[in-house]
Design brief:
The complex is a heterodimer of chains A (about 350) and B (about 280). Chain A is about 25% helix and about 35% strand. With about 350 residues, chain A is an alpha+beta fold. Chain A has two domains: about 1-225, 3-Layer(aba) Sandwich (Rossmann fold); about 235-345, OB fold (Dihydrolipoamide Acetyltransferase, E2P) (Beta Barrel). In chain A, strand 7 (about 150-155), helix 5 and strand 8 (about 185-190) form a beta-alpha-beta unit. In chain A, helix 2 (about 90-100) packs across helix 3 (about 105-120), helix 2 packs parallel to helix 4 and helix 3 crosses helix 4. Chain B is mostly helical. Chain B has a domain at about 50-90 and about 150-275: MetI-like (MetI-like fold, Orthogonal Bundle), CATH 1.10.3720. Chain B is about 75% helix and about 0% strand. Chain B has twelve helices and two strands. In chain B, strands 1-2 form a two-stranded antiparallel sheet. In chain B, a hairpin with a 6-residue loop joins strand 1 and strand 2. In chain B, helix 3 (about 60-90) packs across helix 9. The radius of gyration of chain B is 23 Å and the shape is globular. In chain B, about 30% of the residues are buried. The chains are: A alpha+beta (about 350), B mainly alpha (about 280). The interface of A and B includes residues 69, 76, 87 and 96 of A.
């Protein structure tokens, strides 16, 4: 549906995007995830037509879109702060795009009404945007873009201004809507939870490049780089050397990791929730071929869903997430077990 | 701050306004109804409506109508010239905006009278423009650039343009760039974006700017006096004439008050239109 081919964008002397290659499939919910300044919004603006690439090509529905101004591109955007027209009613806001296309009056009425129903704002057509709550304004913005049946809907941190509860509810709603319409969504966010919960695929971006592209499971469970491991959720980064056995030499331990490690410095990412903790009196079993390291509990933090432990292992610290229930105390001697497949070798 | 000390702080202003605005206005009102004026008293005597009735005379009505037309045309021309300029300044990079605004304001640093004479030096029969055109042999005799209705327009627009640009700029500067992006994103061409978003959102600024230009132009006396011909008398000139030449203060006062009333009505209409637009237009 959309293809970025070697797209770069520089603003003055700063490079916002470097050689971006990305394909968005029809009907896909693809998220660009990254910290501010990573180039995700620039990518969106390039596709929308608010910026032109410095080099490279962008293809949309089988045609290059270079030089096509924003108002001629068959994509629509839901803006971060909604950007609703304050001098128009909700109905007129949603009807705006259809009027620009000179759609007949009767059809405008029908389609706007349907779009408002779709976002559950029936009967709100006569209101002004400032009379609506943040969540409702957000839905008007969504209806305004969706009513034009864009080839791709671009969403620029659309939930950023909402409070947490509303955001969660809108995440579910957006995802259901996207599935029901079979529409292609390109979604920009810096919220990793949101990205994991909603996307078919996630492109994790940093410094104008895609660090990793994959399903939420892939990027979370098999991070390709240090950055991805740390940006999505929490990760222990174990730095060591490749040993002759193909294991990772980490302090005094030789750890089994998810692949054969060559010589030289190597970093391994390990999620705290994949670390199981054994202490005297615990019933935690030990699996076969598991890494086992020993240490002392240095920190203990109740986090609601469980207890987060930081264990000092020969001067290095490892975080582990313990399910709620009994656990070791501060200063206790514990054994940490984790399997090879959860030790993911990451690029620096 | 207590309520009482708040009033105390306001007292000098209130006294100032009472003494120098309200009192003269009341005096003018009294004069406009005066039957006659005693040479030895500053206060008007008697009561009559004849001065107001005299305004119905076609001679004076024509002056009023001409003033309204002249002021309306000047307002329209100021809008035509001022809107693109205000828009351009508001869309310029931040550092350049200050410099451009300065250029708009600089003429205020020179005396109005001096500027008007400078403009006349430019437009006179032996003025700069005519001399250049004559020297270039493009014309055989000087063009009549001064002392007519057109030169009055030139003077009015030149003088009053900043009054339109400044409030309009203040409005356009607040215009949310994201709304323009949104309009384009929804398929609006640059012109459609202007017509459907920028223009309606800038209406409060347009109204205030036009009001200021119109009211100032309507009562303007110096420009038509110096740059106009015998037939371009405006209300301001009529007032000046009644006070200084004809020495008919009561009639002059009546004309001045009608002028003030028209200005007030215009201001109220503009305020009303602004409210109908919705005070919520800008977030």
């Amino acid at each position: 549906m959309v293809e970025f081919r070697g797209v770069s964008k520089t603003f003055g002397s700063t490079e916002a995007l470097t050689d971006l290659n990305l394909e968005i499939r029809p009907g896909e919910f693809l998220t660009l995830l990254g910290p501010s300044g990573c180039g995700k919004t620039t990518t969106l603006r390039l596709l929308a037509g608010f910026e032109e690439p410095t080099c490279g090509e962008i293809w949309l529905a089988g045609k290059p879109v270079q030089g096509l101004p924003a108002y001629k591109r068959p994509v629509n955007t839901v803006f971060q702060h909604y950007a609703l027209f304050p001098h128009m009613t909700v109905f007129d806001n949603v009807a705006f795009g259809l009027r620009m296309q000179k759609v007949p009056q009767a059809e405008i009425k029908r389609r706007v009404t349907a779009a408002l129903e779709l976002v559950r704002l029936e009967g709100m057509g006569g209101r002004r945007p400032h009379e609506l709550s943040g969540g409702q304004q957000q839905r008007v913005a969504l209806a305004r873009a969706l009513v034009l049946e864009p080839k791709v809907l671009l969403l620029d941190e659309p939930l950023g201004a909402l409070d947490l509860q509303l955001r969660r509810a809108m995440q579910v709603e957006l995802r259901q809507l996207q599935r029901r319409l079979g529409a292609t969504f390109l979604y920009v966010t810096h919220d990793q939870e949101e990205a994991l919960a909603m996307s078919d695929r996630i492109a994790v971006m940093r410094n104008g490049r895609i660090e990793q592209l994959g399903t939420p499971e892939e990027v979370y469970l098999r991070p390709a780089t240090r950055f991805v491991a740390q940006f999505l959720g929490e990760a222990n980064l174990l730095e060591g050397e490749g040993a002759a056995s193909g294991r990772l030499r980490w302090g005094d331990y030789h750890l089994l990791v998810d692949r054969h490690v060559g010589p030289g410095r190597t970093t391994v990412a390990l999620r705290p929730e994949q670390v199981r903790v054994r202490w005297p009196g615990s019933a935690t079993p030990v699996g076969p071929a598991e890494n086992r390291v020993h240490g002392i509990v240095a920190e203990r933090l109740f986090v609601g869903t469980g207890v987060r432990l930081v264990v000092e292992v020969a001067g290095r610290r490892l975080a582990a997430l313990l399910p709620a229930g009994p656990g070791p105390d501060l200063g206790d001697q514990v054994e940490l077990c984790f399997s090879a497949e959860h030790c993911v070798v990451v690029a620096p | 701050m207590t309520r009482r000390s708040g009033w105390a702080a306001l007292a000098p202003t209130v006294l100032w306004l009472l003494a120098l605005v309200a009192a003269p206005l009341v005096l003018m009102l009294a004069y406009s109804f005066a039957a006659h004026i005693a040479p030895d008293s500053p206060l008007p005597q008697g009561f009559t409506l004849e001065h107001y009735a005299r305004l119905a005379d076609p001679i004076y009505l024509r002056i009023f109508v001409r003033s309204i037309l002249q002021a309306g045309l000047a307002t329209f021309l100021c809008l035509l010239l001022g809107y693109p300029l205000a828009y351009y300044i508001a869309r310029s990079p931040l550092q350049r905006r200050g410099r451009l605004l300065l250029l708009v304001i600089i003429p205020f640093w020179t005396n109005f009278l001096v500027r008007t004479y400078a403009l006349m030096a430019l437009l006179r029969a032996q003025g700069v423009i005519n001399s250049i055109l004559m020297a270039a042999k493009m014309i055989d005799e000087p063009l009549p650039l001064l002392y007519n209705e057109a030169s009055v327009q030139v003077g009015l627009v030149y003088t009053l343009l900043p009054l339109l640009i400044l409030p309009l700029y203040a409005n356009l500067e607040k215009l949310d760039q994201r709304l323009l992006n949104a309009a384009q994103d929804l398929g609006a061409s640059p012109f459609a974006t202007f017509w459907n978003v920028t223009w309606p959102l800038s209406r409060p600024g347009v109204l205030v700017g036009c009001m200021m230009v119109f009211i100032s132009a309507f009562g303007m006396y110096l420009v038509p006096d110096l740059m106009g011909g015998a037939r371009s008398v405006m209300v301001g000139n009529l007032i000046q004439n009644q006070f200084l030449q004809a020495r008919n203060w009561p009639f002059g006062a009546a004309v001045a008050l009608v002028l003030a009333a028209v200005a007030l009505v215009v201001a109220l209409l503009v305020q009303r239109a602004g409210r109908l637009d919705g005070g919520e237009v800008q977030r």
